[in-house]
Design a protein that fits this description.
By secondary structure, this protein is α/β, with parallel strands linked by helices. Helix content is about 60%, strand content about 10%. The protein is built from 17 helices and 8 strands. Its EC number is 2.7.7.7.
């Protein structure tokens, strides 16, 4: 059966349910909301009992799952069996049980199933998707991929959540700025973002919220990753990159590790530009630079406007900051690692911004 996204789930749940669902992703809030919606649809279709298990590769009796899947209540003809695998690794016995359950679900079909099986997994990477047990479940049921909310989509997500509780921000540029501020406060922390939206519903009546009200109420609960730092710098976003860098340092991220992210991006740009100068096509240059995913698109946009001498100067700066992070001094640079990282990040941002502007 085809995979679903969260946006397709509501329409799907108006139809007859499949015998098996696999939910995978790393966003607890969205997973719980999808699971609640699936449970509600199942109850409406007569699945009135539920059994839940937390499986693991060791110290778990998978026969309990088989027994629950095979049993029927005297008072209810249909039941939900949920299996959560926190590590995504069921072990040899668990893999066999999951494959067996998937084959049973595929054989019985959705028309008269007494059991609805729901399997909850962390994000399924390529290695997991290639296992026989995952492939069997994918063939027998519906796979729901739960993607995190990207930063660019956060303002719309927040506006939608506010609308659901009868609130909104001002129209036009003022509203966009308010949502941008809200996004900065909760970025990377969706559960906290949800809680902050709910808090606004408790503090203020339905209607339009002013920026002053949101600023007075919303806590700064943003969380950033190393990938956020890389993307901000390669996008030429100077203020955002400095904010992300400061937050990561405040959270205890090691200066040496942060430097490795910046230096790695500089080296990727240098290698790719060098390959292009030697006549390699862009896809081959990006592969040589070991760039993929969002970073691949950022590099592809920057590289046509970058030149090796400028990138070589950045490499020299990265070499200096590497020494500072390890306790060495340099007369032309700040003596502490955080300040040196901030300066290196600004150099990278200026180069990325000029390359983007030149396009």
């Amino acid at each position: 059966m085809p995979a679903l996204t969260l946006s397709q789930l509501p329409q799907h749940l108006t139809q007859r349910l499949a015998p098996l669902y696999v939910l995978h992703g790393d966003e607890p809030l969205l997973e719980q909301e999808a699971l609640d919606a699936l449970r509600a649809a199942a109850r409406a279709q007569g699945f009135t009992e539920r059994s839940a298990f937390v499986g693991s590769a060791t110290q778990f009796d998978w026969s309990q799952v088989l027994a629950a899947s095979a049993s029927q209540s005297l008072f209810a003809q249909r039941q939900i069996v949920e299996i959560r695998l926190p590590t995504g690794k069921p072990g040899k016995e668990g893999a066999q049980v999951l494959q067996q359950l998937a084959e049973q679900a595929a054989a019985s079909g959705p028309s008269a199933d007494a059991t609805l099986l729901i399997v909850l997994l962390p994000r399924a990477d390529r290695s997991m998707q290639q296992t026989p047990w995952f492939a069997a479940m994918e063939q027998a049921g519906v796979v729901l991929r739960i993607d995190p909310v990207a930063r660019r989509d956060m303002p719309a997500w927040l506006a939608q959540r506010l609308k659901a509780q009868g609130q909104s921000v001002a129209s036009g540029e003022d509203g966009l700025q308010t949502l941008a501020f809200f996004t900065e406060c909760v970025e990377g922390n969706l559960m906290a973002a949800h809680q902050e939206v709910q808090k606004l519903g408790l503090l203020y009546p339905p209607g339009v919220l002013s920026r002053e009200q949101i600023e007075a109420s919303v806590l700064n609960v943003a969380r950033y990753s190393l990938q956020d730092l890389s993307e901000a710098i390669l996008s030429g976003q100077a203020l955002r990159s400095q904010r992300v860098l400061a937050a990561l340092l405040a959270e205890g991220e090691a200066a040496v590790r942060l430097h490795s992210v910046l230096a790695g991006d500089i080296l990727s740009l240098y290698r790719a530009r060098q390959a292009l100068d030697e006549g390699a096509p862009m896809p081959q240059a990006l592969r040589l630079a070991r760039a993929w995913g969002p970073k691949e698109k950022l590099l592809e946009r920057l590289l046509p406007r970058l030149r090796l001498p400028a990138l070589a100067r950045l490499l020299q700066s990265a070499h200096v900051v590497d020494g500072i992070c390890k306790g060495l001094k340099h007369p032309a640079w700040p003596q502490d690692a955080p300040a040196a990282l901030q300066r290196l990040g600004m150099q990278m941002c200026r180069l990325a911004h000029s390359a983007s502007a030149a396009r």
